Structure formats: C-alpha cells, structure tokens
Amino acid sequence: MNRRSFLKNAASAAAMAAMPLPGSAATVSLPEKAYMSVRGQKVAYVDVGEGRPVVFLHGNPSSSFLWRNIIPYVSTGHRAIAPDLIGMGDSDKPVLTDTYADTAEYLFAFLDALDLSDAVLVIHDWGSGLGWHYARTRPERISAIAFMEAMTPPFIPYESYEALGPFAEFVRNVKTSGVGEEMVMKQNILLDQFMRHGSPNGPLPDAVMAEYNRYYPTPESRKILLDWPREIPVAGEPADVDTVARANNDWLLASDLPKLMFHVDPGAIIPMAQAEHLKKTLKNLETVFLGQGGHFVQEDYPDEIGRALAEWLTRN
C-alpha cells in the first residue's frame, strides 16, 4: 500500500557473521532462518539474541528481509524474532481463502507457541494491522509497540473510495477481477514499481530487489501480493477486515502501552498530517521524524531506526 507514487540467538558463529554490524553498509543477507510447523505448514523466521523478545512484523509485498539492517541494533541486548508471514518469504505458501483471517491464525499460533511475555512489537504495513490485533487480544504478552507506516485511526479503514484521494483509481483497479491480476501478478507492479521506486531518495539496488523478488518467480506465485491489497477495507468491505480495523483503532486510542512512531515526509499511510494527528491523539507516544521518505522507511533509514529503537528499548 503506498500513498505516494509504495531476525533465540544464532547457534553458530557463522550465523552471527552473516549479520551486519550497526553502522555498517547495508546487507543483502540474513542469518539462517529457523522453521516452525504451524497448522501443518512451515513458518520461516529469524531468531537471534537473548533477552526481552522484540518481534518484527512485515507487510506486503515484503518479508523478514525488510528488517535485516535494523535487527543487529536490537539483537545485541534482546531476542529479535522476525517471521515471514504465511504465504510470503520463505514460509510455506498454502492457498488462503481469507487472506487476513487466515494469516492472523497462522501468525497468532506461531507467536503463541513462542510463549512470549513482556514482548515488544515492531510493525509495518499489514504487519501493523496484525500486530495491533495481536496486542489487543493478547494483552498479557505485549508490553510496548514501535510502528512505522502503519494502519492507524482514522486513516484506515477508508469510509469510501473518495477518501483514498489520488489512490482511489489504483485500489479500484487492484480490486477489479482481471485488472488486478494483470497489474500485480503479471506486471509485478508492487515489487518492481512501488517498492523499488517508492522512495523519493531513489530506487532500491538490484541486489536488494533480487532478494525481495526471489520468493515470487512466476505470476502465479504472486497471487498473495494481489490478495493483500484486495483486503484493504473500503466502505465496509471486506467486512471482517473492516471490523478488525475498527476494533484495533478503538483499542489503540485507549491504550496506555508505550509506543514509538517513526515517520517520514511525505510518507504513504502515515503522511505528515496523519503523524501530527497521532501525536495529539495516542497516549504514551514518542515520535522520531526520520526525514524524506516513502513507505519502506526500513530501506531508507535502517541505522536511524535501529539506533532510536535500541535506545527506546532501554527506557521501556
């Protein structure tokens, strides 16, 4: 979704060597992933470091790879966990009949199996909708949340297509049978256009995009990338996602959990005006303005996010 043009400690020294040191050049690798069987399917995840758990949740069309340059700042003093959502990254890719609800079932079962307590969520894009939902329904497990380019009130759900402004046509097209398949599955617009060219700071490098594209070599493999934007709640549909989004919003506005918001200008789903609104309406919120950027702020500002996140964690 774009509103502007859209990692238990490693068992071996080799795994740790695969991680970049804070402040180093951006990497295109992650430590070796672990796998957990969840509802008969394998969920891939990075699990490094020891201490208070910090769980990184990605959205569409990315994977745990999105957090590769931020996790090293956290894993030196915490346990950093970053799953690939079911159907994405190196996780198994079963047919999902209800993308949001099915993904939530797999993710929540995965997180429950880790038996987390006093955990911190770091969330982005659809990982934010899922993260708010998990924190709302598992209050005994989650004690703080950091977010960036996240689903927040009153921005999502959208009351109408008109509320999407210049993106109304794109969302209508993606939700239209045949048209969405051509755009997302055949043309690969979410990865090769919105992700690669979604930042005013310039396109993502070939090696980075090659990793993001590695999981989706064929049009058929990219169906999950299409299914996610079709879950964007507009005018009450899909009804189940709309209901979850509204419940998340009500909970978020009432929650006293420590929160950390990263934002950029112009941003995408947290543009500057929305960031200012959230500063006034969310309780116990700290904010970090990163500078000029688009939706995938982890690619633009990994060091800044990593340093600020690590410092905030020491205080919360």
Describe this structure in words.
The protein has 316 residues and is an alpha/beta fold. It has 13 helices and eight strands. It has helices spanning 13-17, 71-75, 99-113, 126-137, 168-175, 179-186, 189-195, 206-214, 223-227, 239-254, 272-281, 297-300, 302-315, and strands spanning 34-38, 41-48, 53-57, 79-83, 119-125, 142-150, 259-266, 285-293. The chain has an eight-stranded mixed beta sheet, sandwiched between helices. A hairpin with a 2-residue loop joins strand 1 (34-38) and strand 2. Helix 4 (126-137) crosses helix 10. The protein is globular, with a radius of gyration of 18 Å. 47% of the residues are buried.
Helix content: 25-40%
First and last CA, distance = 30 Å
Secondary-structure-derived class: alpha/beta
Please report which band the strand proportion falls in: under 5%, 5-15%, 15-25%, 25-35%, 35-45% or over 45%: 15-25%
Low-confidence stretches: 1-25
Q: What's the total count of β strands?
A: 8
Strand order of the largest sheet: 1-2-4-3-5-6-7-8
Q: Supply the number of helical segments.
A: 13
What's the mean pLDDT score? 91
Detail the topology: elements first, then pairings:
Layout: H1 13-17, E1 34-38, E2 41-48, E3 53-57, H2 71-75, E4 79-83, H3 99-113, E5 119-125, H4 126-137, E6 142-150, H5 168-175, H6 179-186, H7 189-195, H8 206-214, H9 223-227, H10 239-254, E7 259-266, H11 272-281, E8 285-293, H12 297-300, H13 302-315
Parallel strand pairs: 3-4, 3-5, 5-6, 6-7, 7-8
Antiparallel strand pairs: 1-2, 2-4
Helix pairs in contact: 4-10
